[in-house]
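Example complex used in Figure S2.
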Amino acid sequence: MKTQNQRAWLFVLPVLFLVAFNALIPMMTVVNYSVQETFGDNLFFWEGLRWFEEVLRSERFHNALGRQFFFTFMILIIEVPLGVAIALAMPRKGPWVPVCLVLMALPMLIPWNVVGAMWNIFTLPDIGLLGYFLNHVVGISYDMTQDPVAAWVTIIVMDVWHWTSLVVLLAYAGLVSIPNAYYQAAEIDGASNWAVFRFIQLPKMKTVLTIAVLLRFMDSFNIYTEPFVLTGGGPGNSTTLLSIDLVKIALGQFDLGPAAAMSLIYFAITLFASWLFYTVMTKDDNKA
Amino acid sequence: MRMRSLVPILYILFLMLPIYWLVAMSFKTTNEILSGFSLFPQTWTFDNYIEIFTDPTWYWGYINSIIYVTLNTVISVTVALPAAYAFSRYSFVGDKHLFFWLLTNRMAPAAVFALPFFQLYSAVGLFDTHLAVALAHCLFNIPLAVWILEGFMSGVPKELDETAYVDGYSFPRFFMTIFLPAIKSGVGVAAFFCFMFSWVEMLLSKTLTAVEAKPIAAVMTRTASSAGYELGLLAAAGTLTIIPGAIVIYFVRNYIAKGFALGRV
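Predicted assembly (553 residues):
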């Protein structure tokens, strides 16, 4: 039981102030732009919902959104099972565990633009390790800057490289919290490996896996820096994800109205999808 | 069993390959990089690193990044501590809504905020200062720190607070001398994640700075475009950005699993 205490608001006030400063003011700016037209010189004209209609009807937005959903979908179906599989294969204790965890966490601590630059160097056709290997040892012609399929495979592999460890660490933390008695009981019952996974390990990992799926969804849906540095959205527009397109419109073309409307639609989709994931994944908890 | 331990080994190998390549490139001469493929540097050179450590534009990039990351970590954890305490100990009007609202800020795409942030921090006269970047990163780091700390604090039994009050401790004294030491691993984990997300974020830190507080990321892109494509130099700069993260992660290696075990990131 928590104590009723309205003065607790005082404790929350600094946080409230700082986050509100950073969240509400920029958000109001975006809302402001989204309903107006500007011709520079701080002249603004009321436009109502025109930009929203325009964005929602534009083919460019549909394409970027489609690419974004495809990217996020691929990331989730690759990273989550792979991360769980690696966590299951990890030893539970021993001197190597901290070493493994540190090495696995390393990609997450590299600045995002460096991740992009690193993969660029890694995949250069004649200079990069992977590019050279694929072109000259395996013998398939691989050039990310020319071939959209190669570009897609590369940004997905890069994200798998970058973020699968998050799923591994979360799943692993869920696994080590399972008491040994559970496994002993399963052994006495003669449970198969699959049964142990399905009825002991998976339910115990559920909370952390919910968080893993949510975080991977949010972060892959909002991804900008890594694919931008690696492919610049190309070749053509083939890897122009939603954030890349948004920055192009806002800072490249300075079309503030449409960019603002797009931002709000974008944010709404992220919020709604996160809420949906959360509700679906915790549905059974509420029933029980 | 043998086969099983092969999986993490192969995975770590996959993780290390691009990093190895970056490090290997940083020790090669430009001639060697352009003349053809070599698995190891044929002629080792430290020129790339020497250039970075002698050119103020380069090394100030690192110093700037470290300054705003440290500033952000200190601010985030300091203001998150009382808030997390309030969320874990008290119920008050609107507490659940407030908690959820804080977390939604973690979902906002940084690209959405880039331009309004630029205008906001220009308007308050903080553009191109370390404080601007540190404050901007609070947007996603404070909710994160509150979330992590609340988890650790909820693990501390309430009896600890009550006993202290019975013994005549004032709240500030209790918080500093009893409560804080009890959750110090939580503070470590929260600080680690704040450091991590502030260190890796590049879009906002680049947007909010020009000269005085230019982060290493901006130096890297500008140098790459202005002086042709100097891969060796770029690789050396990239290698150096891995080091602070590696040091920090080494210090918290025993807490990482625990921090994640609470199910909070």
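Residues 249 and 255 of chain A are 6 Å apart (CA to CA). Chain A has one domain: 60-287.
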